[in-house]
Amino acid sequence: MNTNYLPSDFLPIxxxxxxxxxxxxxxxxxxxxxxxxxxxxxKDDPFECGIEVVGNARTPxxxxxxxxxxxxxxxxxxxxxxxxxxxxxxxLGMLGFIEMVLFMALLLxxxxxxxxxxxxxxxx
Amino acid sequence: xxxxxFIIKAIIILVIFxxxxxxxxxxxxxxxxxxxFIQDRLGPDRAGPWGLLQPLADAGKMFFKEDFIPAxxxxxxxxxxxxxxxxxxxxxSAVIPFGSTLRYDGIEVAVQGVEANIGILYIFGVVSLGVYxxxxxxxxxxxxxxxxxxxxxxxxxxxxxxxxGLSIVAILMMSESLxxxxxxxxxxxxxxxxxxxxxxxxxxxxxxxAECNRTPFDLPECExxxxxxxxxxxxxxxLGFYLFAEYIxxxxxxxxxxALYFGGYNYPGMDWVYTxxxxxxxxxxxxxxxxxxxxxxxxxxxxxxxxxxxWVRWTLPRFRxxxxxxxxWKGLIPLAILNILITGIGVLFIQPSxxxxxx
Amino acid sequence: xxxxxxxxxxxxxxxxxxxxxxxxSRSPIHSVLYLILTFFCLSGHYILLNAQFLAAVNIIxxxxxxxxxxxxxxxxxxxxxxxxxxxxxxxxxxxxxxGGTIFIILFGAYRKTQVxxxxxxxxxxxxxxxxxxxxxxFRDYLLPFELASVLFLIAMVGAVMLGKREIGERHF
Lengths: 124, 359, 172
Prior knowledge:
The complex is a heterotrimer.
Chain A: H1 11-34, H2 41-44, H3 63-87, H4 89-117
Helix pairs in contact in A: 3-4
Chain B: H1 3-38, H2 54-64, H3 75-91, E1 101-104, E2 107-110, H4 119-140, H5 144-175, H6 180-186, H7 198-211, H8 223-226, H9 236-260, H10 270-281, H11 283-313, H12 321-358
Antiparallel strand pairs in B: 1-2
Helix pairs in contact in B: 1-9, 1-11, 2-9, 3-4, 3-9, 4-5, 5-7, 5-12, 7-9, 7-12, 9-11, 10-11
Chain C: H1 3-24, H2 28-48, H3 52-75, H4 81-85, H5 89-112, H6 130-139, H7 142-163
């Protein structure tokens, strides 16, 4: 396989991006042009199963979703740390494995704390 | 990169792009036919022979529907939502190796948009951006159902991304490379990763279902609770983009699964076929024909994956939201970490002793 | 001009433009979307430097994870547009002082630092690949790596302490 990676390897991505963007823009413009357009008061309302609209849709939501998002950020960064390790796994050998087991033990300790605190409990 | 190689790459990307769109279009037809078969009905059969023109008719209908934007929506974000969803879906295929190499004019070009050192991470990155299309669209609609659908979809996607990343780590420990091209090349013949990573495969497949918002994880658009989920307010081709992006994602995830676990373009007995072909057509033409055969095998595997998605959809009921989150966080993440540990022990201890024993 | 250089200028122009748009745009959602664009441009710079792993990590962690969190907070925190308009002069003055101080510090730091030199004969183009990065991280910088995991643990505990509501409390 190719072992000498260069920035120019990424040139085809530009081709793909231009293709995708062109497809999307053209489709959007075409569908906007050829479809009909009729406005009415009832149609402009947000859909609420045919009942009168109550309140605003910009409501605050349960804090649990934020916690999930924060935990996701933390776990994502930890997973990213594992990639350079996994790629060098055979070269790093036993010592590298112990390093990562230690890292994962701390990760799992945090995970256990989260579970015990009931952050991921949805069925209360 | 030389100009010839670049032009060949551009043509490959163009062909793959077209094929992706075609497959996504006919997946809608396939889904209805599969549903019909499973539920013992006919499915679409009016437009053209066996209903084969049905996707065209659907697309035509989508185009001629009113492109409606609700008065209370944020106009530009409302348009941006489906565009982002579609863009991320269409960008993902760049690093997937659809075949080995093509020889032309003395150079060898891989049947792959970009052969990058970070291949897998590119896919991972594009997948993680898929959340934006849903969140932006759902929020901009200014509708309570859309908002709920969007937030459900977003937290579902981000939860399963962690387990997905962890399940890939186990493969990387064996392949020692992030490049999808070399991961596939290492599974030469029938030496597929699925034999070594059955647990990782199951975790990855589950996460792929969740990332595509497919049944049994289709809670974002659960019609009994949320009407249409994040695309409640959408109509015309904007709705079409969301649905289309889902089918493209299905195809891409099947392609990734077959590249990572089922050997991609490799199939048992490929060396024998290769020698036969080069003997029959000469070195260059034979090589190219063998590559195209491998590409056909790859598409066969990916299309079977798409069929599997449909099969599951019409067989299994949907999860409840707490079950979904519990499975993602409490089930798959510890399992994936366990899988990494098992792989590590296997590579460090069992593999050397096994090779010593076999000698 | 050679293509790499012109590409660099184009990318830099795009980066700075989208960074300015982050500050200028009225709606916080637009700001976040422009910030994502800025991160993409930065990833483009990393790719030009042949630091492919950093480019991918920048997209996954910043654009894919942290910005999702930002969007979550902004979208679902009930931001009413009317409340936005009342920003006191005190806030503006404080912001100007803080921003100005940071600018002066950065400017001074840049003036004092010496630009590193490099030897073109010893230049290895594959330094930015994930393999060499992993070897350095897990051999030479082992202690910082393990300490980072302690940091993650603390961050997890902190997030739970701040965000967790006990049973019976309202969830929002």
